[in-house]
Amino acid sequence: MLDIQYIRENPELVAEKSKQKGYDVDIEQLLGIDSRRRELLTEVEDIRKQRNVIADSMKGGKPSVEQIAKGKLLKDQLAALEPQFNTIDVEFMAALNSIPNITADDVPVGGEDASIEIKKYGDQKTDARDHLDIATEKGWVDFERGTKVAGTKFYFLKGDLALLENAITQFALDFIIKKDFTFMTVPHMVNARTASGTGFAPRTSDQSDEYFIEGEDLSLIATAEMSLTGYHADEILNESDLPLLYAGLSPCYRKEAGTYGKHNRGLFRVHQFNKLEMYAFSLPENSAQMHEQILKIEEEVWQAIGIPYHVINIASGDLGAPAFKKYDIEYWSPVDQMYRELTSCSNCTDYQARNLNIRVRRANCDIATVHTLNGTVVSLARSLVAIIENYQTADGDVIIPEVLRAYMGGKEKI
Hints:
Blueprint: H1 4-9, H2 11-21, H3 27-57, H4 65-97, E1 116-121, H5 131-137, E2 141-142, H6 143-149, E3 156-157, H7 159-177, E4 182-185, E5 189-190, H8 192-197, E6 219-220, H9 224-230, E7 236-238, E8 244-253, E9 272-282, H10 287-305, E10 309-313, E11 325-333, E12 338-347, H11 351-355, E13 359-361, E14 367-369, E15 371-379, H12 380-391
Parallel strand pairs: 4-8, 7-13
Antiparallel strand pairs: 1-10, 2-3, 5-6, 8-9, 9-15, 10-11, 11-12, 12-15, 13-14
Helix pairs in contact: 3-4, 5-12, 7-12
């Protein structure tokens, strides 16, 4: 969530930034609720203070008639005010949580088409076959039996393609560990507080992408980012320990409702896939630099694998609630003759950390809210698509990128 003090001081800016992200928010209503909440809180705290004074004065002696009467009056007043405060406090938190993070000044304003290309790498190939045709012919993927077992857009990976996914994972893991990230496996389910604390508030009530566990305070994670965000919930970190760098490996579960089309065929957009995710807890003044560092690591991975790509600065209307700024790496698809999303990295500033009460004790003993950042090292299903499209041969084989061959037992092609 945003700092309410920041909203009080910058209501027009917050309203405009929210609109640019595509969120319909009512800042005036929020501030009205905030004002009434503060008034009630002042009254409640004043009554509690008076009760404490009376209680202290009665210690060691018999209370007077006046003290008893005054105590009863304050108790009745508190009993009337506390339910009012609790009700408006719930309204306040709901309204505050509906406000998305603001955006950086250099974020392009507009929808998806307004995103700006900032760099490009590699040659653009043409005349490739669709990954699903090759994978099906080779017996590497089975969507038919995946549908039988779990439903549409679930699948089995088999043989060499499953081994290639493992090779990409192991290469990426070795790569990221050398960058001082601590490898972690994470819970595949999180409670409601952790899920909402990541800040992925849908723009409308029917846009939730998570799978919820019926009758439980749990949902399946859409990304390891959700678990990693909650790792330090309600903790005060030491300034000297930051940045804290983690790499979480997990399956990701997403409904992906309403997103199907010719560019989402096969493995590109599915309900379950594996992903290795970078996560950083940073000092506020260092988060912009950390964002660039995470992007650099993502680029180094894909340059090493040898996949052509470009980097785009994502436009405001395509950002989620928590992101202050986001970069996407999109690989060149010789099948579609266009760039398609491969990885992303976001600076969420203090938005997620404020939700989950993650703070830092500065060297001067001041307490501040940390900044959080995330970035995909490899999203495995899409990684397979990018490699099949860019490394296929005329006879339907797939060349193994050189950096992955050691993880494939020395195989040069499959």
